[in-house]
Amino acid sequence: MSGTPLPTPRGSPAGPRPSWGLCGLLAAQHVLVLASLLCLSHLPLLGEAPGGPGPRPPAQLLASSLFSCGLATLLQAWVGSRLPLVQAPTFEFLIPALVLTAVRPPADPPQLLNNGSQVPVLTHESLQEVSGAVLVSGLLRVTAGLLSGPAGLLARCGPLVVAPTLVVAGLTAHREAARLCAQHWGLAMGLIFLMVVCSQHLASRSVPACPWSPAPRPSLPVFRLFSVLVPVVCVWSFSALLGLGRPPPSHLTGPAPAPWLWFPHPGERGRPALTPRAVAAGTAMALASSASSLACYALAGQVLRLPALPSDACSRGLVTEGLGSLLAGGLGGLGGSAASFANVGAIGLTQVGWRREVQLSGLLCVALGLSPRLAQALVALPLPLHGAVLWVSQAPVLSGGLARFRAAHLHSGRNVFLLGLAVFMALLLPRRFTPDDAPTALQTGWPPLDVLLQSLLATPVLLAALLAFVLDNTVPGTREERGLPPLLSPPCPPGHEAQAPQATAASALLRGPADEADQADQADPANQADPADQADPANQADPINQANHANEADEANRASQLSGLPRPLRALWPLLPGPFRRLCPPPSNSGAKGQDRPQPGEAVELLPVPGGPGAV
Fold first, then answer.
1. Helix 229-242 vs helix 185-196: angle between axes, to the nearest 10 degrees?
2. pLDDT band at 147 (very low <50, low <70, confident <90, very high)
3. N or C: which end of the chain has fewer CB within 10 A?
C-alpha cells in the first residue's frame, strides 16, 4: 500500500513461476480470513434466542456456505472479472437478513427476555425466508449483470464516489469485530500486534525457501507473505496451551460432532420461502452487494496496480456472483456471495495477488464444504482471533479509500464537503435503523415495505455509494476538479479540415507566446510549410490529444488482455446468444497468442524478486 515502485511480477523473465506449495499456503490464508467472515455473518443469525437456531445443524449451514463460496470464487477467477477475488457472505447480506428476522408481522411478535428486551424468534421458517431473500438477490444480480446495468454507471463514478464507499466499507466491521474481541481482549491485541509486526516491521526480512536443499533457492519475504497465517497459528497454539479464551458457542458449531462427509443438495431442510418480505430483503441485498462488489473491483485494481476494468468484465463479475448467491440460496444458506473486502485487504498486507492462489482457495472451500466436520473445526478458533483478523484485514480497505481521494482536487471545498457528508451520513443513518438499536424503526403498515426501506437505510456501504454518486453528479464541478479524465475529442477524419484551426490554436496556447527568433523563423520562406502538408488534416491534429488517445487505447488494450476470457471461451463467441455477447468482447486476431499469460510488467502477480522493493 506504500508509494514504492511496483515489484517485478513473478511469471516474467525476472523471476520463476510460483510453486504450488507456496500458493497452497496463501490459499489457506485466504480461507482463514473467509472463516472469520463466516463466523461474523452466521453468529447473529444463529444466536442464542428463544427457539434456537432451527432444526438444521449449524455445521451443515457453514459447510453449504463454504461450498457455494468456493464455486463462486472459481467462477469469478475463470470467467468473471478474472481478478484474484475471494467470494464471501459480506455485511451487505447480513444487515437485510437481520432486518428480515426483526421486522415481524403483527401475528408473530418478538418474544421478551427476563430483562425486558425484545428478541426476534429465529425459527426454521425465519431462516427459510433468509434463504429465499438470498435466492432473490442472486436472480436480480444475474439479471442486472446481463443487462450491464450497474457496470454502465461506472463512467460517472469518479474518485469522489469510490473513495467514500471504500472508507465506509473499511469502517463497517469495527462494531461487529469489537463484539468478537470482547470475549478476550488480551488474545485479540496479541494477534493484532503480531500481524502488524510481520506485515510491516519484518516485511523486508527474507528467508531461504528451502534451506536444506543443496540447489540454490530464492529467498522469500516469509513474514510478509504469511502475515495472517503465522500469527494466527502462534496465538491459537498459545491460547490452547494456556487454556485462554472460550470455545465458540454451541449454536455456531453445533452440540454434536458433524459428519465427515456430506454433499450439499437443495431441499434437504425445506425450500426457501419466497414471501413478499423475502423479496423485499433480497432486493436490498442485490443493490447493496452490487455497489460493494464494484467498489471492491476498484480496490483490487488499485492494490494490484491494474488498469480500470472494462464494463464487460464488471458485468461478468456481477453475473458470477449472482450465480453464487443463487446456489447459496438454493442450498439453504444464510448469505450470498460477493467480493470480499477482507480478502482484498489480506492481499494488501501480503502484496501478493495470484489467480492460482485464489483458485486453490476456491477448491479448498469446496472440499471443506463437503465435510461439515472440517468446516466445524475451521470455525473452532476462539472468537477474539476472528475479530482481530477482521480488524487488521479491513485496515487496507480504509487506507485504500483515503488514497483514492488523491485523484480528485484536494483543495477544493466542494470535494472536501461532499466526501465528509457522504461518509458522515452513511455512518449516522444506520445508527437509527439498525435492527439491534431499532427493530421497528419504520412502520408503514405493510411489512415488505418496512423491510425494504429499513434494509436500505441500515446498510452503510449502499448509503455511501448512493449519496456520493448523487452529490458528485449534481453539484457543479469541472471534470478535473472531480478527478475524472478529460473528454478527448475524436481524431479528425478526412474531409473535416474545419477542426484543424482549433487544434492549432490549442497547441499555440499550450506553447505560449512566440519569441522574436520564432517569428523570424516563421517569416523565413525556407521554413514555410508545404501547402500540401497544411491541407493534410493528419498533420494539423493536436499532438497532446493524439498522445492521450494513444494512452487511453493502450490502457484499454491492457485491461482487456488481463480481464479477457480464456481462449477456449473466446472461440465460442459467435455461438453466444445476444444478451451474453455484451459480457464478452469479440475475439481479436492481433496478439491472441499471448493473451492468456500476463506480459512482463503487468501487475497480476506481485511477489518481489530478490533485490527488488520489499526484499533484502
1. 150
2. confident
3. C
